[in-house]
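Repro case for the chain-ordering regression, as requested:
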Amino acid sequence: MSEMVLLGDEAVAMGAIHAGLTAAYAYPGTPSTEIMEFLIRYAQKNKKPLAQWCANEKTAYEDALGVSFTGKRALVSMKHVGLNVAADPFMNSAIVNIHGGLVVVVADDPGMHSSQNEQDSRYFADFARIVCLEPTNQQQAYEMTKEAFDISERYHIPVMIRLVTRLAHSRAVVHVDDVQRQENPLQKVPNPNSWILLPSNAKKQWHELLEIQKELLRYSQESPHNTLELNADFTDYGVVTTGLGLNYYLENLPELKHRPSHLHISAYPIPVEKLRTLAKQVKKLIILEEGYPFVERFIRGILPLPIEIQGKLSGHVPVEGELTPDNIRPALGLKKRERKGVVHFNLPNRPPQLCPGCPHADTFASLKKAMAEFQKTMVTSDIGCYTLGALPPYNAIESTVNMGASVGMAKGAADAGFYPVVAVIGDSTFLHSGVTPLMDAVAHNTNMTLIILDNETVGMTGGQPTVLPDSRLKNVVLGLGVEPAHVHVVTTHRKYIDQNAQIILDEVKYNGLSVIIAVRECVETAKRHKKEQKKA
Amino acid sequence: MKYDMIICGVGGQGVLSVAAIIASAAMKEGLNVKQSEVHGMSQRGGAVYANLRLSDAPIYSDLIADGTASMILSMEPLESLRYLHYLKEDGFLITSENPEKNIPDYPDLDELLTRIRSLPNALTIDARKLALEAGSGRATNMVLAGAASHFLPIKAQSMEDFIKEIFARKGEKIVDINLKAFALGRKVGEQLLK
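-- result from build under test --
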């Protein structure tokens, strides 16, 4: 055993390496990004494993599936909303006979620190009928990831590791193995029928997946991750925790007069018998869950119960946002901790903002200038640093929904008869999910203008490289069939604000599809590249 | 022994470097450590903070509970008040006096500093001036780390060792500047000991 100081994300990466990982794939997304960043750094030093950023979460997942097909172990990591993008391969990978261990790590963001929703990935694991492991600390993140590969190979299913922001981005000492498991031999699936999901095969596979549910339940029932401690002397209430709810409960436990019976759930499917055993002992259940009231809804069902349940649905625990050591106290009958003598001072918020000198700011200036010519305008946008263009002083964009939505939404608005419509999307987001909706716009020569904000990097997540060199963006756009006369590559800069505004205006006035690629490197990555050049 | 602290500031001010130095030094001295950070969106010029928890017993939560922090160490005066609800009644607040005015409604600085100084156990430092004296304005965060060092359950020497380690790849000059900034901050921090 040796000690390492690791983020929760990094502990997952280290666990995968020690489990004999062959290849890992991901698309950057807070709070999951550091998993792949760690693997890439590790691979640079050690030549292994293969660790790659991909175009999006779906392609990443499919790459990982291919690795599994050959018998090798694969990891695919993403943020929670990334799993929506990868939902198709994810759901169907549960139907095939997973061969080499396949682990999908999903980092949820309760509290929406850096996301547009707080969806709980445990629903997805349940939807796909697979095992989900939910670590509560960095050590478990390491151990569970190792174990997840074994479970995957034992039951021939993908296994999900569910992280949340506060674990993904918190550091602690992790005790790690000194030896690393060997990689699996390259030996493809013995019977490919289990991977050819023609209805006749798929029916058989689905039947098998349903058949092994009993075994999965037995696994979670016996798993040491689902700990049940009974206290027969105190029956007023029992506590169920999931995820980080455990940590906050343990922080408060010394203040409770009695030690209640307690079940912690870290391995799913929900260990039904353990829950029943707990419920039999107590008059009331208090449920502390990080995320949606997932376990709570299962227990409640819709029929009256012989036992009282207090949790998110009863209003005893906040149903929005993340749990904290403080907001679970009322549910445990503890008083709010208060600090006396706090000085009240009117604190203005300090929202994130575009960096000084950011190329997006100059493009927004050009865009605003061009749009000032019209009385009513519509500007759709997307996910990235440029989403901050919604805030003052820019107030330049009007929508941010999901990766790539700016393009399709602009088309829809133009289809509905709105004019002028402009879509604004970053270079990496365009490659992630903007190309296919642009294909739709080309097919119908939609009257809209797309501006690709090309800062030559994935900015918001810390400056990862885009999947293709940005110099190829123009060819991608031309290759789709956008009229060459209406494709412009411009340098965006303070000194070109007026001339770029004119180009935008001319293209908005053109009755058809036009694309303007506004290029200048992100100031942060430019700084880093300069430093690296100096060193070399 | 349990020591919880909030380290805060604005994205780019070196909050995470200070947290890393204290955390590494504490681990070296055999303490359990949890360090929760903010990544992603907020790092772009927004409010940034780290929860740092040190203890000789196991630590469960990555987050600090209200009213239980022993110290708020802030790179910026306005940010020092944002996390006040975490501070214990007898906790210390150490902040730089130098504002980061990247928002239009930044409050009046004199009024702000007066409010901070009215708190018990609060110390405001012209950290930028001391950092420049040490050789670079960028070492402001190390001045503040130095001022805080008197109150942490770890030796100043352990922190200095990690300052050397972290800045080693940037060259001897940068190491010296940061060590000097740390020493100047440590001297100012003595005021709070009285």
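Ordering looks correct now. Chain A has three domains: 2-211, 227-332, 359-527.
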